[in-house]
Amino acid sequence: VNLHWKERIWIQPKMNLLTDGELKQYEIEGRSFYWPSRFNPDALAWLYNEVFYPQFKNPSSYEHPIAVPDGGWVMDCGTCEGFFSMFAFERGAERVIAVEPLPGMKKALEKTFHYIKEKNFEVVPAAVGKKNGKTTLDVFENRAYDSMVNADQEGMHKVAIRTIDSIAKDYNLS
Cα(165)–Cα(154) distance, rounded to whole angstroms? Predict the structure, then answer.
């Protein structure tokens, strides 16, 4: 795609706060989601654009012909706020396994996807790695999306590490 830089400028979508509390409910372009109040929400509109902005304006956007077979499943590794999970359901996924190690995100994700039939959206509170085990996670409350596994130092939060194969086995994905 040949674009001039001016055509790639992102217009931040309007993000509305619907409810306040431990989990804040936001809405962008008719899509509602929950976000833990301990985390800064400033980058959520940018993250939304990463997934839903038209590909001709953002070539790295997920908004392109990704095919999810009807009745298929998706494993969303590093789910964070759940935008890619939303995208997968909108593209025909019947089931999403959300793998997210950030503390507090499991409750927010379950509330965001409360309308999905039980067992069709499940959250695995873990990081993905090459072998099962435990590690530490450096959690950045101002930039939750930049939180990372930090195996070399004492991190802020202990997390499980799961392999994709072990998750697939536990959730009967084939």
Answer: 27
Among 160, 172, 169, which Cα is nearest to 132's?
Answer: 160
Contact 115, 71 (CB under 8 A): no
Between 61 and 130, residue with greater pLDDT = 130
CA 99 to CA 82: how far, in whole Å?
10
Write down the pTM of the prediction.
0.89
The Cα–Cα gap between 174 and 133 comes to 23
Q: What are the structure tokens assigned to 117, written together?
A: 């039939």
pLDDT at 8 over 60: no
Please state the rounded mean pLDDT for residues 57-75.
Answer: 79
| Contact residues for 75 (Cβ-Cβ < 8 A; gap 6+) | 96, 97, 99, 164, 167, 168, 173
